[in-house]
Structure formats: C-alpha cells, structure tokens
Amino acid sequence: MAIEELTRLVKNAVTSEVFGVWFLIGAALVFFMQAGFAMVETGFTRAKNAGNIIMKNLMDFCIGTVVFILLGFSLMMAEDYVFGMIGVPNLDILTDFGAFLKGGNAPVFMFNLVFCATAATIVSGSMAERTKFISYCIYSGVISLLVYPIEAGWVWNAKGWLAQLGFHDFAGSAAIHSVGGITALIGAIMVGPRLGKYIKNKAGKVEKVNAIPGHSITLGALGCFVLWFGWYGFNGAAAWDGEALASIFVTTTIAPAAATCATMLFTWIKTGKPDVSMCLNGALAGLVGVTAGCDAVDALGSAVIGLVSGILVVIVVEGLDLKLHIDDPVGAVGVHLANGIWGTLAVGLLANPAAPAGLGGLFYTGSFKLFGIQALGIAAILAWTAVMMTITFVIIKKTIGLRVSAEEEIKGLDSTEHGLPSAYADFVPAVEGLDYGYEEAICVSGEIPAAEAVPVQRVPAVDSGDSRLTKIEIICKESKFESLKAAMMEIGITGMTVSHVLGCGVQKGKLEYYRGVQMEANLLPKIQVDIVVSKVPVQSVIETAKNVLYTGHIGDGKIFVYDVENVVKVRTGEEGYDALQDVE
User: Which residues contact 17 (CB under 8 A, 6 or more apart)?
Assistant: First the structure.
C-alpha cells in the first residue's frame, strides 16, 4: 500500500472518529435545549403555573424516551421500510443490544430521541396554564410514539419517500418545528383560551383582548439564550466535515440575529417601543427558519430568511391573538409553525449551489423543481400531523377531558395539579415546620402575662391634649420615597409601613402594549406609605408630605386621612396612644 493511500485512510479514520464524537456532543446540546424551552415557557406565563410547566417539559423527554425505545425508533429508522412510508419494528435495542451497538445505531438513536423530545415540548407553551397534566402526558406519548417517528422517517431515513424525492430538511424546520407548531395550534384551539383573555359581549362576539404578561422576562431571556446555544448542536451535529460545520455555524448565527433586528424595528415602528418578549420570539423564529437550509444557504440567504422570520413571527402572533382569538401564551405557533413552513420553502428559493449541500434554489437556477418538492413535503407532513393530533385531542377531550376546571385555573396548576403551593418558596408561608434553633425563647401566648416576655420599660403617657389616633395614607411616585421618608423622620415619625402598589388617577395612566396587545393602561407603579400618628400633629404630617411631593405635574400623588379606633402593641399589650410611643 502506498504511503499516500495509508495517510489518506488514517486521516479519514481520525476525521470519522472526531465527528462521531461531535455527533454525540450535538445530541447533548439538543438535550440541553429542553432547559431552554422550560425557561422560555415558564417566563412567558404566570408564576402560579411555573412548576406545572417545568414538570411537562421534564415528562416530554422522559415519556418520549420510553415510547421511542419501545416503538418510535424502529418505525423511523428501521432498515426494512414499507413503501417508503413506515419502518418494520425489529426492537434490536431491547432484544439484541450488541447488534444494535455494532450496527452504529446508538448515536443515531440518541440524536433522533432528543429531536423527538423537542417536537413534543413545543406544544407545552401554547396550551399552558389551563391543560390537565394527565391529558398532556397522553398527548406527549402519542406524538413521540407514532406521529413524529413516521413523518421524520419520510425525511431522514434514506428509504423514506420524501428523502427519495430529494426533499431537503437538514435539521428539522419541517420534521420537528412544523410538527410541533401545527400540534400547538390544534391544541390551543381545542383547549380554548385562558380565563379573562377575551371579553365577549352578550352576542358572544369578542369585544376586548386582554394582555396577560408573563411573570419573568429575565427567565424567558435566559431560556432564549440557552436555546440559541443549543441550536449550534441542533443544526450542526450532522455535519461530517469541518467546512460544512463552519458554514452551518455561520448561517445559524446570521439568521436569528437578522430576525431579532427585524422584530425590534417592526415592533418599534408599530407601537412606538421595541417589544422585549417579541424580540426573544424573533430570535427563535430566525433559528427555526434557517434550520431546514442551514447547510444549503449562504450568508445572504440566511440573512433574508432571518429578516422574513422576524416580521412573520410578529404578524402571526398578533394575528392569532387579535384577529382569530386563539390564545398562545408563548407564541409557539408563530415561532415554530409559521417559520417552520417558511424555512422549508426558503430552501427551494434560496439554496446556493456553492453551499455545502450543493442544492440550487429558484433564485439561483430559475427552476421550480426543488421548491415544488419542498412544498409537497411540508404539505404532507402537516397533513399527517394535523389528522393524527386532531384525533388524539378529540379522544382525550371526549374521555378524560383536556382542560382543568375554572377554579383550578384561577388557583394555578402548581397547587391543584401537583400540590405545590408555589414554585417560588420565598412566597410560601411555610415556617410552621422549620426548626430555627430558638427552643429556649419564651413566647407570649394565651394567658401568659406580658412580664414573661422581653422586659418592657413602660413610659408614662404624654398629655398630648388630643389622644386621637389617625392613619395617614400617602400615595406617591417611587422616585420621591427617600425624600418623603427623611422628611417624616425629621418631624418625629418613627414608624411607617411601605408598599409597592399599582394605581391610577383620572388620567388612567399610560398606554402600553404587550406582544402587540394593549395592556390595561390605568395602573402605574406607585409607593404607598401608611403612618398612624397621635403625638405628631396630623396637619404637620400632611404639610410636610405636600412640600416634599409637590412638583406641579400630574401624578404627584394623593394623601388620605382616616380615624383609627385602636392600636395594640403585640409585645407589651399596650393600647391606644401608649402603643405608638417608643421606649426611651
């Protein structure tokens, strides 16, 4: 054997081993995307459902793994493939694990498993906050057992009928995102909108659309960045040479960046301010859009895909909400369905023969052939999924039901479905069962006299001439609080209760939008300061507050004065005037 031939074989072997390892690393990155989906969906919904959403994302992968082992993988990637439509199960992974490994199936199994979980978890966000957990688990099992494996086999099994036609979906705009997106749309329609989302008149026509903001834009943003990071494995893992991998990384970066810029400018022009949550959706839309052709388009093509995706996601999200009145809390339909379709068709338009895939789209060759194949493929995949998932949801709805009761929805699914008082423990009054190590402390309770508690130095009551108790409630701008507090201390106020509140005056606040929907504009953040006085003259408090808060502009605040019947100091048992005095 010539030295040149030996060198070539060794180099190919090393390259194959390196990219085999990269394939598995890519699978791990896609698995990590489950965390990203969980954070995006949790951040875009209300806190009372956070635990439920985390649980659904967890079970998508776990249920999906079980059913994919049992049947899904064989239906998708079996060597015996019937009419290019469906694999014949051989169950080697369970019956002959050694042969399964030697056949090189393990990496392929892992990669398709994490792809399957991604398709399933897309639906969680669109049906969030009102879907029964058991019903969701059944749906998750069905899509991972039958729906995804069969249509994905058409695309990625070499014997699949779409693969034979030349359909190109490198990483799943059609096979994954469009499947999850159309299921999300069907699920959102069948489960119905959240309570209070759409206000109807007596004729049953929607006359008002309410915005229901998510509880943590920070969590949603972190999830978006996690997804973007994982997407490099999502799109790049199947690249088996360095040049193709580099090209995919470039296109997977350009498209979401361009999409986010387009979304920012579009929402900025449309509503006067750039929409934060919609820009996060824009980034994900660009990633979905470029997924099918990440190896087939160039830098310009990926930028065009991104620009269209960034505008398309806004139009679809707002159109579903404002025009069709379909409640999709996280924008799953706009991100995954609309841009999954667009990304699949974009391959037929923008594929550059100079890119690693070597395909020629309409704009480069003038031929409609590739575009026609792409259109046929996405139509077939959507039709299969729509039929199967509609049947699944109808059966669930007619048997165990899809939706929780109104009372459960109002309380939140964390408590009603999982017995979780709150996903945020700091907001749960759960101190009864905790041991703080204060066993020796003496507690005043029942008939125990106050003398057994912390020693109290009683101060003779001061003859104020007017022992009335008065509560003064001051509502002011947040920016004025520190000045107000200092001024109150100077005139002798030693105690106050401060709260962050939302409120409005006659002007009804300021118009704002959330994801294109007009928000209740009559509530603005304010500070409420409650002071109960007896010794300090009421008028002094009022005049001091007026002097500090006055600017002459709308929104300076209000001062309310109330009579107080009594005050009791818990520690000492003192009441009335005495209860308000400090111990000298």
Answer: none
Q: In sequence order, which residues have a C-beta less than 8 Å from that of residue 341 and are 6 or more positions away?
A: 173, 174, 178, 378, 382
Q: Is 332 left (phi over 0), alpha (psi -120 to 50) or beta?
A: alpha
For the record, the structure tokens of 253 come out as 């970066």
CB-based contact 496:530 (threshold 8 Å): yes
Tens digits of per-residue pLDDT, 513-550?
777 777 665 667 889 999 999 888 999 999 999 999 98
Give kind and range of the element (H or E) at residue 222.
Answer: helix 217-236
Element (H, E) at 485: helix 481-490
- Tell me the CA distances in angstroms from 74 to 77, 99, 112, 287, 366, one per residue in order: 6, 14, 11, 29, 39
Contact 40, 220 (CB under 8 A): yes
CA distance 172 to 273: 33
Q: Which tokens in the block code for residue 556?
A: 């300076």
d(CA 128, CA 50) in angstroms, rounded, equals: 10
CA distance 102 to 214: 48
- Distance (Å, rounded) from C-alpha 123 to C-alpha 336? 10
Task: Output phi, psi for 518, to 5 deg.
Answer: -65, 125
The hierarchical CATH code for the domain 13-205+215-401 is 1.10.3430.10
Rounded to a whole number of angstroms, the distance between the first and last alpha carbons of the chain is: 101
Three-class DSSP category at 148: helix
Say what the pLDDT of residue 262 is: 98
Cα dist from 194 to 103, 129, 184, 308, whole Å: 49, 7, 15, 30
Convert 415-444 to b/e letters by CB count within 10 Å (16 or more is b).
Answer: bbbeebbbbeeeeeeeeeeeeeeeeeeeee
Provide the residue count of the chain: 584
Percentage helix, strand, coil for the chain under 3-state DSSP, each rounded to 5: 60, 10, 30
Quick count: other Cβ atoms within 10 Å of Cβ 5? 9
Question: What does DSSP assign to residue 575?
Answer: B
Domain map of the chain by residue range? 13-205+215-401, 466-580
How would residue 583 be classed by pLDDT, with cut points 50, 70 and 90? Answer: low
Which among 36, 76, 14 is positioned nearest to 228, based on CA atoms? 36
Quickly list DSSP for 70-107.
Answer: IIIHHHHH-SSEETTTEE----HHHH-HHHHHHTTHHH
Task: Note if the pTM is more than 0.70.
Answer: yes
Q: Are 173 and 351 in contact (CB under 8 A)?
A: no
CATH for the stretch 466-580: 3.30.70.120
